[in-house]
Amino acid sequence: MLHVELDSPETGNAVTSAMLDELLAVLAVPDPAVRVIVLSAAGRDFCLGGDREELLAGLDEDPTGGRIRSYGDRARRVCDALTNSPAVTVARVQGRATGAGFALALACDLRVGADNAVFRLPELALGLPVAWGGLLPRLLHEVGAARVREIILTGRPVGAVEARELAILQRVVPEQDLDGAVDEWARPVTRRPEAALRVTKTLLASHASATRLADASVLDSELMASVLAAAHYTRGLAARHPVD
Fold this sequence. Notes:
Blueprint: E1 2-6, H1 17-27, E2 36-41, H2 52-61, H3 66-84, E3 88-93, E4 96-98, H4 100-106, E5 110-114, E6 118-120, H5 135-143, H6 145-154, E7 158-159, H7 160-165, E8 171-173, H8 178-190, H9 194-210, H10 220-240
Parallel strand pairs: 1-2, 2-3, 3-5, 4-6, 5-8
Antiparallel strand pairs: 6-7
């Protein structure tokens, strides 16, 4: 079993380019001996989303959004690596899982949350599309279009009990029992034959993708870059030509 921990609690484990690179280094080339990968986080919260300061700095350096595209491409690769890993991936969630944190958790096969877990997608209120790591098609597939529409348009928080009802989480336990819940899942999986486990994971991923007529999440990085670049340009224009 491999444990991968987001370890920047002072920022709420905000996802930076460096963090994505570190995750890719671990996940992109899987070790065939590893049957279970556990994604967890240090501190009170699982992850409060992408690092907005880094994204804005990237726009200052490249107003066309090139750095945002690069960041978005890496985010998609990380989430795809979690979903398509031959190992069973488990998200261990406590506290808030916001935006990118929501996406990272949802990309995992199994998701256990503490009873204080809260999921939220505030992108619309921040002037952003829900376009991070292929989150939207995964969420539509797992939860259903009507509920997803309401969660995105209102931006309201989804607590642990509701998250379990919506299949965002498969299990909810007290925070002190998270490790025990992960172990209960991991023990039988580690005893499964490697070839059978790998083929089963491939079949599950194939059937999930077959329900999508088209996967527009390939455009996530382009959408994010275009919206942020346009907003950045508008703010700059207003600063140069103020209107009384």
